[in-house]
Amino acid sequence: MIQAIVTDIEGTTGSIHFVHQVLFPYASQHMADFVRQNAHQKQVSEQLDTVRMLADCPQADLAQVIEILLTWIAEDRKATPLKALQGILWEQGYQNGDFKGHVYADVVTQLEAWQQQGLALYVYSSGSIHAQKLLFAYSEAGDLTPLFRGYFDTTSGNKREVQSYQKIAQSIGLPAQDLLFLSDVVEELDAAQAAGWKTCQLVREPEMRTGTHPQVASFAHIQLQDF
Ligand SMILES: CSCCC(=O)C(=O)COP(=O)(O)O
Ligand SMILES: [Mg+2]
């Protein structure tokens, strides 16, 4: 019996458009100034050092690190230090009211219903935990953070790797077969399934109908008794 639901964000709880046409452009636009102004802060300098290490450029100066970060944003690289910096940087955008987190209406209704039924709800996204909390705290539907019991990001591992789901199941403290993972990306669902999880693919756009996982177009169509 499903006891906990873990959901992806981009393409699942909210639109791909919001992430790629609002959040990523905001990060690209503000990254250089943000890095230059905050490079001396520990939480930023540590991430910049990790960027240098991952890029195999230990001597890179600030201008080069900024170039690497901008390239990674353009490539949609799920690199943990980039995601950490984006999270810090987006905070200002949310606080200024430059944008609100996009969440589909069916998601809000269904998450509330599941919470009422006693299910434990979690998020697993490549965006940093800080970025996840911001998106749901400043969502178009208001502060949705009380819905979630916990958050997981790439510090638990890559979303396409089986071990990430094993680690998250251990952290949640429930058997894998009692966990349902919701995502739009088949490779992520394949990894969760290989770890013993139940899976369901969100197909928000018809052209995304690929793979062999159970598919729904909306959270409203997810029937937990079918898993
Ligand atoms: C957490 S908000 C920003 C989302 C993001 O940065 C991203 O890369 C989307 O990843 P997801 O795993 O939710 O598809
Ligand atoms: Mg996704």
From TrEMBL:
The keyword Phosphoprotein does not apply. Pathway: Amino-acid biosynthesis; L-methionine biosynthesis via salvage pathway; L-methionine from S-methyl-5-thio-alpha-D-ribose 1-phosphate: step 4/6; Amino-acid biosynthesis; L-methionine biosynthesis via salvage pathway; L-methionine from S-methyl-5-thio-alpha-D-ribose 1-phosphate: step 3/6. Binds 1 Mg(2+) ion per subunit. NCBIfam families: enolase-ppase, HAD-SF-IA-v1. Belongs to the HAD-like hydrolase superfamily. MasA/MtnC family. HAMAP family: Salvage_MtnC (MF_01681). Monomer. This is Enolase-phosphatase E1.
